Amino acid sequence: MANPSPQTEASTPPRHVAIIMDGNGRWAKARGLPRIAGHQRGAESVRRTVEAAGELGIDFLTLYAFSSENWKRPPAEVGDLMGLLRLYLRRELARLHQNDVRIRFIGDRDRLAKDIVDLIEEAEDTTRGNGGLTLVIALNYGAHAEILRATRALAEEVRAGRLASEDIDEDVFARQLHTTGVPDPDLVIRTSGEQRLSNFLLWQAAYAELVFMDTLWPDFTKDSLREAIHEFHRRERRYGAT
Ligand code: IPE
Ligand code: IPE
Ligand code: MG
Predict the structure, then answer these.
(1) Whole-angstrom distance, CA of residue 163 vs CA of residue 236
(2) If you ran DSSP here, which 8-state letter would residue 16 be given?
(3) pLDDT tens-place string over residues 137-192
(4) Are 63 and 137 in contact (CB under 8 A)?
(5) Does ligand 2 lie within 6 Å of residue 20's CB atom?
(6) CA distance 105 to 120
(7) CA 144 to ligand 1 centroid distance, Å
(8) Which residue segments constitute the domains of the chain, with CATH numbers given?
(9) 70 Cβ partners below 8 Å, 6+ apart?
């Protein structure tokens, strides 16, 4: 019988990978295509990456799909992005559910169209009991808004006499964030060569490894994900210790 080889530290995949999917517009521009063509190809990358994440043994995959600042884009592009999201959810929900994927959304739902909120709720309700990959989709998400919302909720608890301000610690605070129940990301990837967080998971990514890749999001493949994970394993995480 073959010796079962113990999982080495280096082969353990990061538990939670979060991706800032950037570069759809530049991908299209380089080909003389409209930006929507880049977003369409970007949606195919989403499909591929969700599958790859499951295959690579990742437990949580968070994808930044639309930021609270993306409303500043021309209404036609916002409409295209929302249309693609509708299409993705309608087309993929059954297959994701079959593959035991649990879907969660983070972000502010107030500004989203009613039919999108319905689709989100259907996706979450349908897949609530699934035990495979958890896919977290950040939609109309912004970390500043998330942190302010948590602060207001806690202030309200204190005002009502249900909570003492000195009892607000990191756990109490984190429980008020959209990501409650989701472990902090170990690895944050941003594609397209930009090196900033753009209001993504500012609280949660405090100790995440940041990997910036030049690859534009529509060109992102399973190999790109492998490469980012490889880079993650080369880093030494210290959490403030020596
Ligand atoms: C990422 O691609 C998609 C979203 C932000 C929704 P961009 O649309 O930001 O592409 P670039 O940055 O213009 O290339
Ligand atoms: C960040 O990308 C938001 C998403 C990927 C959804 P942007 O392209 O909107 O960010 P900036 O404008 O370059 O900071
Ligand atoms: Mg961009």
Answers:
(1) 38
(2) E
(3) 999 999 999 999 999 999 999 999 999 999 999 999 999 999 999 999 999 999 99
(4) yes
(5) yes
(6) 7
(7) 20
(8) 12-234 (3.40.1180.10)
(9) 78, 81
Q: Does pLDDT of 193 surpass 60?
A: yes
Question: Hey, what are 175's tokens?
Answer: 């429980």
The neighbour count for residue 194, using CB atoms within 10 Å, is 14
Contact 22, 192 (CB under 8 A): yes
Contact, 134 vs 59, CB < 8 A?
Answer: yes
Q: Is the CB of 66 under 6 A from ligand 2?
A: yes
Residue of 21, 198, 202, 216 with the most ligand 2 atoms within 8 Å of its CB, for mutation: 198
Using one digit for the tens of pLDDT, what is the confidence trace for 79-121? Answer: 999 999 999 999 999 999 999 999 999 999 999 999 999 999 9
pLDDT at 123 over 70: yes
Instruction: List Cβ neighbours of 202 (8 Å cut-off, separation of 6 or more).
Output: 143, 144, 147
